[in-house]
Amino acid sequence: MTVHAQFPDEQTADGAFTRQPDAFHRWVTADGSSGFPATPGRYHLYVSWACPWAHRTIIVRALKKLESVIGMTVVDPVRDERGWAFREGPGHSPDPINGFRFLSEAYKATDPQYKGRVTVPVLWDTVTRRMVTNSDDDLMRMFNSAFNRFTESTLDLYPEQLRTEIDELNRFLYDNVNDGVYRAGFATSQPVYDKAVRRLFDALDQLETRLKDRRYLFGPHFVESDWRLFVTLVRFDAVYHGHFKCNIRRIIDYPNLFGYLKDLYQTDGIAGTVNFDHIKRHYYVTHDDINPTRIVPLGPEQDLTTSHGRERLA
């Protein structure tokens, strides 16, 4: 039997998925020393509601109240061999900035020799007419601080006194949870899948224990790490549990993690960034090597708006 990998260039000989690194790492700075000064209306964010990496940047943009400062366009959740596309549809639209039909055009405009996979998010600079970055990690940090003088928000998701601990936990979350679900879902051999799933659920067990006596990952206030974890948790029962075979347990089976997920979901402005229609259609239709029928499941039923009871841990 021939086994087909979702992204063959990112698959090892033993069947493991190894994600490509982000290719563009230019920075927007408050003082403009990078060549990309923080300016209202200059930058535009290309994202997918479906993608957890893009979702992180949408969340920080919302929390920092930057919607009027940084524009945003959403791609079609169904990606084919041509990549992410700009089309009219529920929750997505054509590109109003450049008239691009496909996100790959932004990559080629920035680097005509680019050969890697085209990913979201992308921050586009309307002045130089090229991409600033396709790194969600960088964008979360830029949105957190570079545009502060243009927003009324005083929120700091990367407080100086916690930076070393945040960076350490971020690495744990990425290796074991955020990318862990993909390492399980995109595995093309049983041993690789088994290892990835065990590692994932060991990490979830550790996080369940960590959240037993604290409201958020570092105590009474959420930080960047909480939102990095949130984007995986909110997709878990709907997609990763079934589609990626991460099915030892569901998030709803973890009392602390599920309450924590509901707590974050109920934060002002966050529910509007979660689009389960885009999430499910993207994974179940796009990953036809995993789901060849492209049937999108109706479930699961889940209500993230009920009481989470975590105020007592504040």
Task: Provide an overview of this structure.
- The structure is a single chain.
- This protein has 314 residues and is mainly α.
- Helices cover 35% and strands 5% of the residues.
- The protein has 9 helices and 4 strands, in the order E-H-E-H-E-E-H-H-H-H-H-H-H.
- Strands 2-1-3-4 form a 4-stranded mixed β-sheet, with helices on both faces.
- Helix 1 packs across helix 7, helix 4 crosses helix 6 and helix 7 crosses helix 8.
- The termini are far apart.
- The mean pLDDT is 95.
Provide key terms for this protein.
four-stranded mixed β-sheet, single chain, 314 residues, mainly alpha, 4 strands, 9 helices
Write the H/E string, N to C: EHEHEEHHHHHHH
> Alpha-carbon distance between the termini?
54 Å
Bin the strand percentage: 5-15%
Total strand segments = 4
On the 0 to 100 scale, the average pLDDT is: 95
Strand order of the largest sheet: 2-1-3-4
Main sheet specs: 4 strands, mixed
The chain-level structural class is mainly alpha
Number of helices: 9
Low-confidence stretches: none
Overall outline: globular
Overall radius of gyration: 19 Å
